[in-house]
């Protein structure tokens, strides 16, 4: 397990290094780098599945620590996957804006063309407003994605904490009443988390629907 763990950790660090090159890569080559990064991330996810199996086979005194190390790798690679998707979304939006701008500038305006009777200043202002709206949507989608990722991480943390609390309670011989209170609080936390995720999804849907 140790060999695969260190190999996977090294791959995550390499992907982090490559991610820093995305912004400076030219338009003709950026999609090649994106494909390479996605392939590396997919390979890391495959290694993590194997590490999960190996961690479960560790001796009892080392099993918990092994699972925590694997969970940390999962957390890191999930953030890399989210960052790559956000970058791709921003790139698609910029390319669409560039195409719209080129189409606008290539149009021929004549005094007899009823379809092009809008003043140039107003057309440019409209294009600027559209660009601002696109950027606002990108920021909101990025924030929403980060919030959802954070909520998923919190869910995992709450589940782990709940289990540990129950284990400690069993060891200390606490009463059934205290145990039920602990389980009730964990259920309430879970419902709050699910409500937050649903609210975030609704906000993102409304933003895409009305700003798109």
Indicate the proportion of strand residues.
Answer: under 5%
Evaluate the radius of gyration. 25 Å
Structural class: mainly alpha
Shape: flat
SSE sequence, one letter per element: HHHHH
Percent of residues in helices comes to over 70%
What low-confidence regions span 5 or more consecutive residues with pLDDT below 50?
A: none
How is the main sheet built?
none
Ends apart, CA distance between termini: 48 Å
As an assembly, this protein is single chain
Mean pLDDT: 76
* Total number of beta strands: 0
Query: Helical segment tally?
Result: 5
Structure description:
87% of the residues lie in helices and 0% in strands. With 212 residues, it is mainly alpha-helical. The chain is flat and about 75 Å long. It starts with a helix and ends with a helix. InterPro entries: GOSR2/Membrin/Bos1, v-SNARE_N_sf. Involved in transport of proteins from the cis/medial-Golgi to the trans-Golgi network. It is found in: Endoplasmic reticulum membrane; Golgi apparatus, cis-Golgi network membrane.
List keywords for this structure.
212 residues; 5 helices; Golgi SNAP receptor complex member 2; protein transport
Indicate the topology.
Blueprint: H1 2-19, H2 27-56, H3 60-106, H4 120-172, H5 176-211
Give a brief description.
Pfam families: V-SNARE_C. The protein has five helices and no strands.
């Amino acid at each position: 397990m140790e060999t695969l763990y260190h190999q996977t950790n090294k791959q995550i660090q390499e992907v982090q290094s490559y991610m820093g090159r995305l912004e400076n890569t030219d338009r003709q080559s950026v999609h090649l780098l994106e494909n390479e990064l996605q392939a590396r991330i997919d390979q890391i996810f495959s290694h993590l599945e194997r590490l999960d199996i190996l961690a479960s086979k560790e001796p009892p005194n080392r099993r918990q620590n092994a699972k925590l190390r694997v969970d940390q790798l999962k957390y890191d690679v999930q953030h890399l996957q989210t960052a790559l998707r956000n970058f791709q979304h921003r790139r698609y939006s910029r390319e669409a804006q560039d195409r719209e701008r080129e189409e606008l500038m290539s149009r021929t305006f004549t005094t007899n063309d009823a379809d092009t009777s809008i003043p140039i200043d107003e057309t440019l202002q409209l294009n600027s407003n559209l660009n601002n709206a696109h950027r606002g949507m990108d920021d909101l989608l990025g924030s929403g994605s980060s919030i959802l990722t954070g909520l998923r991480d919190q869910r995992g943390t709450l589940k782990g904490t709940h289990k540990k609390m129950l284990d400690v309670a069993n060891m200390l011989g606490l009463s059934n009443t205290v145990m039920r209170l602990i389980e009730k609080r964990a259920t309430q936390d879970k419902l709050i988390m699910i409500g937050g995720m649903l609210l975030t999804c609704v906000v993102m849907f409304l933003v895409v629907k009305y700003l798109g």
